[in-house]
UniProtKB/TrEMBL annotation:
GO terms for molecular function: DNA-binding transcription factor activity; transcription cis-regulatory region binding. Keywords: DNA-binding, Transcription, Transcription regulation. This is WHG domain-containing protein. PANTHER family: HTH-TYPE TRANSCRIPTIONAL REGULATOR BETI, HTH-TYPE TRANSCRIPTIONAL REGULATOR RUTR. The keyword Transcription applies. Gene3D superfamilies: Tetracycline Repressor, domain 2. InterPro entries: Homeodomain-like_sf, HTH-type_TetR-like_transc_reg, HTH_TetR, MT1864/Rv1816-like_C, Tet_transcr_reg_TetR-rel_C_sf. It comes from Mycolicibacterium rufum.
Length: 196
């Protein structure tokens, strides 16, 4: 039996600094994530943060990568169930992640996100997470001529819009969870081939 790989001291320090940065992000929002604030939260000198992440942008990029990893875990539904059931469960996982971690969700999807830079590793990770949705949507019996990537983008547009409105508190219906389910059902119906 293989023994689990141990983290090096350097990896542990980087993880501890990211934990501190996540605490600041969750508590105070992305604007509050500064090298000094993270150093204070972690109980280290600011140079320790600079040595690992270069600057605030590097810190935010590392946080965004971690947030995408968490989102990927939230939408990972495994192989059990039919295509529609799996897609619905993944969408529910997406909503749970957003509602449980609104600052992390905003970091990766709001204007100015590290994911907006096409050359960023954050963007690459975001595309990998999107590929999970493409695979889930592609497993449906799609309407003729509907590309799975276009279908996944439409699905994401709908669920992201629903979650963003819920986070902003501007829904026009009293039950956000029920409204989300109706949105997902309508999107799935719109993507699937009509049965004769």
């Amino acid at each position: 039996m293989r023994t689990p790989r141990r983290r090096t001291a350097s990896e542990q320090v980087s993880a501890a600094l990211l934990d501190a940065a996540e605490t600041v992000l969750d508590r105070d929002g992305a604007a509050a994530v500064t090298v000094r604030a993270v150093a204070r939260e972690a109980g280290v000198a600011p140079m320790g943060v600079y040595n690992r992440f270069s600057n605030k942008d590097g810190l935010l990029a590392a946080l965004a990568l971690r947030a995408f990893d968490d989102l990927a875990a939230a939408i990972d539904v495994g192989p059990d169930g039919g295509p529609v059931d799996r897609l619905r469960r993944a969408c529910r996982g997406y909503r749970r992640f957003a509602l449980s971690h609104p600052a992390r969700y905003t970091l990766i999807f709001a204007a100015g996100s590290p994911a907006a830079d096409p050359a960023s590793p954050v963007t690459v990770r975001g595309r990998e997470v999107f590929a999970v949705l493409v695979a889930l949507v592609g497993a449906l019996t799609l309407r003729r001529g509907l590309d799975p990537v276009d279908a996944a983008q439409a699905m994401w547009n709908g669920q992201h819009g629903a979650v963003t409105l819920e986070l902003a508190g501007v829904l026009q219906t009293p039950d956000a969870a029920a409204s989300f389910e109706h949105t997902i059902d309508a999107l799935i119906r719109g993507l699937q081939a009509v049965r004769p």
